[in-house]
Amino acid sequence: RSSPYPFESVEAVKEGYTHVGYENNNGEAFTVGQIIKVATVAYATYAPKTYEIVYEANGGVGSMANTQATYGVEVDLRKNTYTKLGYEFIGWDTDAKGETVVYEDEKTHLKDLTNSNEYHIYAVWKAKSYVIKYDKNDTTGEVTGTVQDTTFEYNGSITLSNEEYIKPHHNNVG
What we know:
32% strand
């Protein structure tokens, strides 16, 4: 059109950003209804969305503050402070099942994790292993035999060794 006309805004969409308006190539903002007197190009302007990274204990105990993040800006994960009796923390999963490590603890340089308000990550736990070592309790050097160590995981079943040490002229009582 050759005559002046009012500016009409159209919602522009860009993932991770909120459309805040339009401006010309000089950075001057247009307002809805503003009269445009010459042909010009209106450039959409955006503000990055912010979101929170929410740390889920996934069976652990303790508390952790969320991490504030801005779309388009790198962010680092916090150091895990959750604990779980008999387990060691091995990383973070994006699935509530918490079976696969997607991010290691304190992972750095992450960005654009979500387009929503929250991004939940879940602690991944691995059962600790324990070893039972058998002692001959021999101060005389008379005891013979070898008993292999027994290894088991926390909350797992355990079968003690049925091997025995032998001391001449004595019965093994356990």
